[in-house]
Fold each of these.
Amino acid sequence: MKSISILFLLAVICLTPACSNDDDDAMMVCTQSDWVGTYTGTINCEGSDAEDVTVTITASGSENIDISYQTATVSTTFFDPFSINNCSVSRTATSGGITATVEASLNGNTLTLEEMYSGTTAFPNCTLTCTRN
């Protein structure tokens, strides 16, 4: 009977998945130098075809970043530096009844940026997906 119990215990141990620290993966840490660079990819805006885009991120002071992007027809610079929160940045501003939210995240060399507007139909919501050059 002891051999059956030992075999059962060994089977349970062998079939139990190994524990890993998944929280480390979920909480990636990015610094200013991780963000700074030039990225190329596509921009997809509501009601339009996807376009090629180049995003430039520069350092602002010792901890913040400036973000700008350019397509064949549009050049955008987000005013005021973004404060880095590990691997994401976010800002919301309201002016003239229009609320704009910009959120960006960095995963290795992949940058995802979203521009979202409310209170207007003049500006479409856009998503940029780019890779560092």
Amino acid sequence: MVNLLPQSEKMKLRTFYYARLWSILALLLTVATLAGSAFLMPAYFLARGEADAATRSLAASEENAKLYAATGAMKDVSLLKERLAILKDYESDAVTELILSRLAGDASGDVGISSISVSFSSATAGKVSIAGKAKTRSSLIDFGKKLSDERIFSGVSVPVSDLVNETNLDFSIPFAFTTSAP
């Protein structure tokens, strides 16, 4: 097929073609930009509303904190909380003393206790964890047997991982206790 149009006519057609092509592309880009903006507007307004609400909430919280600080209420509440914790500990002193006396009576010269942790689940029951160092494996096993023979202790067992060495054993023994009323 041979194109018989003159060169000037070809140039006009080509120019007209590209002008239409670019104008349609520009129109499509404009429509896409406007549609994207229209779809983003609701999300923008929602996010802006949430940001404003968060700002107002923060301002109200800061105001409340300033009021509490001004009245000293926060300090008083924390002091009362500490006092209650201390009173609760004093309430359980007789039980703690009983546990410590039983542990001290069971320890021999070959077993040294370096730490004792007592946590109460009620006024007369809870958990004990003792840690220390034993000179020999047999002295640690004997110590564990003496603890399990105590009537107030339950679930006493020396972990196998503590019995790896023959001498100079580090140990940690957790167990439960239950006493009658203090």
Amino acid sequence: MKNATRKLIVASGVTCIIISSLTISQNSFAQTEKMVQSKRDTSTVSGDYFQPGLVVYVPPQNLDLLTASDSKLAQYGIPSRPSAPSKLAEWKQAFGSVKHWVRPTFTLTNETMDESDENWSGLTFLNLNSPASRVVGWWTQPYAYAPTQDQPAYSATWVGLGGAVDEPLIQGGTFSNVNSGGGGSYNVWYEIVQTNKQTEQNGQPAAVAVSGLNNQPGDQMYCDIRYSNGTANFYYHDITNGNAVSFSITGITGFSNYGDVDWITERPDINGAPAKYMADYGSVTFTAEEGTPSSVSYPTVSSQYDTYYYVTENGNSNTDTLSYVSSHLNSTGNFTTSWKNYS
């Protein structure tokens, strides 16, 4: 969090799953294309988090995104194909190379992003003359290592819209965590804060894990978030394994985007308090783009947008860690953040 601040419809070849205030069985959701209703209270069921207004898009296998009309693409939360050759090549990689469309499971976590704790590094870009309503990030899923043996550690790589001057924030990315036994844990997630659609766990802001992409360290990841007229579209693609997920949250109120966009690596808060250790994620090189739902471009090169903060382990100099911008933004939208033990 920045500045801490089913029904199934099948029509005209369109397949989308609308999750409203009805509660839907996750097993049925994943296995059938018939409307299934369940009265069970999913607020206590792990893996069954369905936010009102959540719409999951699953394009049919015979839909060719490379030739589909703009209106057909929009039905599945996919932006239109750009005309510029370089951007069209990017679009084909991001959207045209999908091998499998995932029907995800959504699970509330105990993690939240809270940059106010000086626990992050990355690029924040604010252009009040041309407010962004779309943010795109490419990066390689990093490995996660514990800086201290047998101690859990956490890190998140994400992109976001909003968050300036305590404004609401819509964000999404990947986790790179390590558990107390040393095993790594990797997933994609989204979080919305300070709107009527704020994601919460026990009354506290919380990220929502999106399972099914099966992203692993070394995979090339693509995350695309767009906002327009109360709807936030999320799109994640593991370009390495070909899995993709597309969904939206509708009916958002309270989001007033000043145009701020973000590409961040961060130590999350756990259960409302800063995680003791940030996972050693090595380094993350972003390719950053921002703009409107129909087009994106690289941010303007300026060192004033590069930001870094120390990430400390409560003053213990033996295990202090640092996330910092190790390579500044260049003209092709690339910059790098790195992890370091600076004790």
